[in-house]
Amino acid sequence: MSRMAEMWTGVGPLGSSIASIMFIYTLIERYFPNRLRSYILNYVNRILAFTTNIRITVHEYTGDHLQRNVAYSAIEAYLSSKSTKDFKRLTAQLGRNSKKLVLTMDADESMIDEFRGAKLCWVATKTLRENKSSYSSSADVKRALTLVFHQRYRDMVTEVYLNHVMEKGMAILTRNRQRKLYTNCRYGYWSHVVLDHPATFDNIAMDPSKKKEIIEDLVAFGKGKQYYAKVGKAWKRGYLLYGPPGTGKSTMIAAIANFMNYDIYDLELTAVQGNSELRKLLLETSNKSVIVIEDIDCSLGLTRKRDIPKDKEEKDSKKGDKQPTTDQNVDNRVTLSGLLNFIDGLWSTCGRERLIVFTTNYKEKLDPALIRRGRMDKHIELSYCCFEGFKILAKNYLNLDSHHLFETLCPLFNETQITPADVAEMLMPKANDEDDAEICLKDLIRALEKRKADARLKAEEDAREKSLTKEGEAKQNESSSNGANEEDKSN
Ligand SMILES: Nc1ncnc2c1ncn2[C@@H]1O[C@H](COP(=O)(O)OP(=O)(O)OP(=O)(O)O)[C@@H](O)[C@H]1O
Ligand SMILES: [Mg+2]
């Protein structure tokens, strides 16, 4: 143990006694054969039961299924945030986005953590699992982290310090973890890939004040733990994103997940076999996640009357059956009430810090029950590109802050409708030379002017058609009133 010598001399009587104990353990674990080791450790444990030190051990794996112990990961992360410069043996793991190596102390190393004036010693140990013939496989290695401290700190450690370590460690794990994009496949399981979407609020083209409002809402939500507990609400929030195709709804979801550092669960409702499978999927989602249902208006005819699939409803009414009043799960499909339960039923409160996002191109088609405030707390319209939005795209795509053609472009955005997706496509550099910006902006001006001219023509045509219809109606009214007069006269 490289730091043992230092501990013998450097941390006073407590450190020395802890160090001595750990030194004995390490010697036993390193130099005695497996069978003999367990006898000796048993014996040493009995003797140490009379000392004044307390040991708490956290194993790397728990349970029958060898699940990695979350507490172990959190403590490891906490210890990795402490200085590792004195260690000779370190382990390295890839951190978030596989870019940076995170260093932690390796087995047989130890460190003293100071907390509220107490010196607390963490020791990393590694033992080889018994009944295994091969020692080369990593699965044979049993790692653990042991906390050793004087018994006078027992209450402080168990009631305060360990919570502090877990909280800090979990925060580091969250910061460092690779975020995931999940989707549900058939048979009701989530599968995932690493979430690596570049969208951020900085590169979303939309009205700046609306953007600011969304960011503030998200920040308040992220800090809302106490608030939600106080008002007795589950810590979750629903967003409805609506607007024409290509206005940035899916991009906004990625930007939200990146901003909040959340995973995304992209729920494909048509693949869900009924309400109970929906509930199961919900229970498998993690905290700090965005659960997304895209194009909710196209999912399972949710615009229909609550609960009853239309064909079933018609059949039943023909047969004279009584209409079902409770949740129906006909044909193994998710019903609207199943979905409402998913959003705000009792089961939905099982997780924490979850955003539920629906997207639609046709908000007006949705059942009002689905999007009422409280379920979909915030309705966000993503609309056609405005001049402010265009400036963000010009900065992103062409690195332009200003240009003499902006003056021509500004009024055109007020006079016609174009989606940010179309603008973005036109701003993609074509020739990779200095004239790119000029070429792209001129293309955009031409496209906007054409749209404006087309829109004017269409408006004129519509007006002509309208007046023709009115004329036709007037003539019809006239001839029918003439007919009536003739009839009156003949009577
Ligand atoms: N507001 C925006 N800001 C920046 N880029 C945008 C915006 N809207 C669209 N884009 C660009 O257009 C592409 C398509 O946008 P996106 O898929 O987010 O649209 P959508 O609203 O989800 O469309 P749909 O209704 O068809 O699903 C994106 O990859 C992005 O590059
Ligand atoms: Mg989309």
From TrEMBL:
Q: Which InterPro entries match?
A: AAA+_ATPase, AAA_N_dom, At3g28540-like_C, ATPase_AAA_core, ATPase_AAA_CS, Mitochondrial_chaperone_BCS1, P-loop_NTPase
Q: Region entry Disordered: which residue ranges?
A: 309-330, 455-491
Q: Which reaction does it catalyse?
A: ATP + H2O = ADP + phosphate + H(+)
Q: Where does the record place the AAA+ ATPase domain? A: 235-386
> Superkingdom of this entry's organism?
Eukaryota
Which keywords has UniProt assigned to this entry? ATP-binding, Magnesium, Membrane, Nucleotide-binding, Transmembrane, Transmembrane helix
Q: Where is the composition biased (Basic and acidic residues)?
A: 309-324, 455-476
Q: Which cofactor does it need?
A: Mg(2+)
Which Pfam families does the UniProt record give?
A: AAA, AAA_assoc, AAA_lid_At3g28540
Instruction: Output one GO BP term.
Output: response to stress
Gene Ontology molecular-function annotations = ATP binding; ATP hydrolysis activity
Q: Per the UniProt record, which residue ranges are transmembrane?
A: 7-28
Q: Which family does it belong to?
A: Belongs to the AAA ATPase family. BCS1 subfamily.
State the protein's name: AAA+ ATPase domain-containing protein
Q: Which organism is it from?
A: Papaver nudicaule
